[in-house]
Design brief:
Blueprint: E1 2-5, E2 16-19, E3 29-39, H1 41-47, E4 64-72, E5 84-88, E6 97-101, E7 105-107, H2 114-118, H3 121-134, E8 142-145, H4 151-162, E9 166-171, H5 174-182, E10 187-190, H6 196-203, E11 211-214, H7 221-226, E12 233-236, H8 250-255, E13 258-261, H9 264-270, H10 272-288, E14 295-300, H11 304-312, E15 319-323
Parallel strand pairs: 8-9, 8-11, 9-10, 11-12, 12-13, 14-15
Antiparallel strand pairs: 1-2, 3-4, 3-6, 3-15, 4-5, 5-7
GO molecular function, one term: oxidoreductase activity
Protein name: NADPH:quinone oxidoreductase family protein
Pfam family, one: ADH_zinc_N
């Protein structure tokens, strides 16, 4: 097998395409031949040693992927050789093969392409857990999605619309705003040239959004929270802008609003049955055509450095997927 090996987590330039022994699955594991793997923001942080998870060196980055099972380990009963699966295991995806715990594998319906499956679990599970589980989103409510043209942002738009909510999508360029409207956003805000608070006020007749979905953080967090409706829920997804914002605690008091932490990874470990049911529901929505990953494009697995460069420049719209040819 071959894989991108990280021996020194000081940046993308230190990754090397390396020949490695093809491993044999141990107890509870399966060996997956990888057809496609997607690039997520944590995949950039982890090779820069900036992510909360610090894998033992050396490691193969690539948190999310899809492929076919080639071997099963002892005790694996619910999966078999030749079965199509997707998985999100944190590492291992940027290569031709990987070992993964069988419990992390999501069986794929035949209608699910490998490219879509590789771009599915992290963004849609995060957004469903955020909006439906943690945010208790209702059909008559309005959602503001920050960073709306990215992977989790586009998933959030689709899930909110599938729930019957009104969506205001905020992004950094007119092109990204147009993409958000194409996939269902009711209104958009270009927060590089429009005043965020004033535009939110105009679009909501002064009421504000019921739910704010924020994977960005940074300078837009406080004005977005100041705009939230009474009894609003502010969903803290992540900090793609870099700085972790600090909000004055009088704001949730005055708004009767909640600051809600969203950590899908911990949820999937602490509540595995609920997570499995959620993934099954999402797969059903995919087959029905209610949701579909937005693709920035595909690149060969060997072009990982180019993919990282696009992500570092914040040029990716939706998800970027690497494929083994």
């Amino acid at each position: 097998m071959h894989a991108w090996l990280c021996t020194d987590p000081t940046g993308v330039d230190n990754l090397r395409w390396t020949e490695l022994p093809t491993p044999t699955p141990g107890k509870g594991e399966v060996l997956v031949r990888i057809h496609a793997a997607s690039l997520n923001f944590p995949d950039l942080l982890i090779v820069q040693n900036k992510y909360q998870m610090k894998p033992e060196l050396p490691f193969v980055p690539g948190s999310e992927y899809a492929g076919v099972i080639e071997a099963v380990g002892e005790g694996v009963q619910h999966l078999q050789i030749g079965q199509r699966v997707a998985a999100l295991s944190g590492t291992g995806g940027f290569g031709t093969h990987t070992l993964v715990p069988a419990k992390l594998c999501m069986p794929l319906p035949d209608a699910f392409s490998f490219e879509d499956a590789a771009a599915f679990i992290m963004t849609y599970a995060t957004s469903y857990h955020a909006l439906i589980d943690r945010g208790a989103l209702r059909a008559d409510e309005t959602v503001l999605v920050l960073g709306a043209a990215g992977g989790v942002g586009t998933a959030a738009i689709q899930i909110a619309k599938a729930q019957g909510a009104r969506v205001i999508a905020a992004a950094s360029t007119d092109d990204k705003c147009a993409l958000c409207r194409e996939i269902g956003a009711d209104a958009t805000i270009n927060y590089q040239r429009e005043d965020l608070r004033e535009t939110i006020k105009t679009l909501t007749d002064g009421r504000g959004p019921d739910v704010v979905y924020d994977p960005v953080g940074g300078d837009f967090a406080e004005p977005a929270f100041r705009s939230i409706a009474w009894r609003g829920r502010y969903l803290v997804i992540g900090f793609a802008a870099g700085p972790i914002p600090a909000l004055p605690l009088n704001l949730p008091l005055l708004k009767g609003a909640s600051i809600v932490g969203v950590f899908w990874g911990a949820f999937s470990q602490k509540e595995p049955a609920a997570n499995a049911a959620m993934l099954q529901e999402l797969a059903h929505w995919y087959v029905q055509g209610r949701i579909k990953p937005v693709m920035d494009g595909t690149l060969p697995m060997r072009a990982l450095h180019k993919a990282y460069e696009r992500m570092g420049q914040r040029a990716v719209r939706g998800k970027l997927v690497l494929v083994n040819e």
